[in-house]
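Ticket #4471: structure export looks truncated?
Reporter: QA, pipeline team
Priority: medium

Steps to reproduce: submit the single chain below to the structure queue and open the exported record.
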Amino acid sequence: MNTPLSMREQIKAVERQLANARARIPKHTIPPALMREIDELEEELANLRSQVKEPPSLEEQIKGVEQQLANARTRMPPHDIPAALMGEIDELEERLAELQTLRDKA
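Actual output as written to the record:
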């Protein structure tokens, strides 16, 4: 009889899957299926983390935003960057700056 994974074990499993998917990102032309997989894993991870009673630490939040920002930057084509992607990057940079300011004040 299998015991269901604890929430933390589920989070760690999804984090590993996400790291594996990100490691498969090629240098040029990211396959849409891989991007969908990464997006779905990020959503699942966010959902699982939201169910955990204790909020992530400030350092964990910073690390998460840094990872999202790095992921967004890997999707930038060399020319004609889509406006939606630039908006996403701008929002992530702003969030990262906010979190870093909170960390520096602490």
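Status: closed, not a bug. The export was complete when the record was re-opened. Leaving a note from the reviewer for reference: The chain has a mean pLDDT of 88.
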